[in-house]
Specification:
single chain; about 270 residues; mainly alpha; 9 helices
Length: about 270
């Protein structure tokens, strides 16, 4: 093709048809420019396809992570509902009791297992990969990109809240250890059996266990003779309950709502 065009140029020069030669040369330049522009457009088109494939992969992984977040947060809402309900029951139990009415092992069994909750284990693999690869800016939908940014900023806020809740729960446990004698030689077996009993909602598993019978024989006494110390412990439990209620009724539903909105938008992006 190049040889063909060269022959035409040479023929025009030999025939001294200079004007036609200039027009031809200009036309040839225009053709070359058009060819270059077409090549660039094809290259850009290919790059856009590659970028979109990368974005689609990121969004797919992100959707999987957010689904995992939603599942575990829904579990937390249920778990914290059980804990806050137990605190109310515990307060009711102690409300009319006198110190001489209380048995150490019974109080231990009612109180010992209900503080703290599992730390947040957000699924952050996809967002970490997106950030490290600069993939966030490839998401053309401004609303979706903003929602993703806000969602993970809120998970970091919840990490801080968890630490605050943990600190409160540790303070509650310290108060508990001031009123209950936990010095049972088989304490791990005792608490393990108690966990199983609570999980299966079958108190007889605990009451009929060897660990419970051996603990009962020891007849350990409460560390306090002052009912006010127990009521002070309950007051601190209510502070803890207040923090958990904020998570359960406000913040956890908010993170679920935000996650579901992102999932809906990712699905819409996939279908467009």
């Amino acid at each position: 093709m190049i040889k063909f065009f060269r022959k035409i140029r040479q023929k025009l020069l030999v025939e001294n048809r200079f004007k036609k030669y200039l027009l031809y040369a200009v036309g040839e330049i225009i053709l070359v420019v058009i060819g270059i522009l077409i090549a660039l457009q094809i290259n850009n088109w290919n790059e856009n396809i590659k970028e979109q494939q990368k974005v689609n992969m990121h969004l797919k992984n992100l959707a999987s992570d957010i689904k995992g977040d939603i599942k575990q947060t829904e579990y937390r809402i249920k778990s914290l509902g059980n804990k806050t309900g137990h605190i109310d029951s515990l307060a009711e139990f102690f409300r009319t009791k006198k110190i001489e009415d209380l048995d150490n092992l019974d109080v231990f069994s009612r109180v010992y297992t209900y503080y703290g909750y599992r730390p947040f284990q957000w699924y952050r693999g996809a967002i970490d990969e997106i950030k490290s690869s600069g993939g966030l800016k490839l998401i053309k939908n401004d609303t979706l990109r903003s929602l993703i940014t806000k969602y993970y900023a809120f998970t970091e806020h919840l990490d801080q809240d968890y630490q605050e809740d943990y600190d409160i729960s540790m303070a509650v446990i310290r108060d508990m250890n001031k009123i209950i004698n936990t010095n049972y030689p088989n304490r791990k077996d005792l608490t393990d059996t108690l966990y199983v009993s609570l999980r299966k909602k079958n108190k007889s598993i605990y009451l009929n266990s060897r660990a419970y019978r051996e603990a009962k024989k020891l007849n350990l006494q409460l560390l306090t003779n002052d009912m006010n110390e127990i009521h002070s412990f309950i007051n601190n439990l209510f502070n803890y309950k207040s923090a958990l209620s904020i998570r359960r009724k406000g913040e956890f539903p908010r993170i679920i709502k935000g996650g579901k909105r992102i999932l809906k938008m990712i699905e819409e992006e996939k279908n467009n």
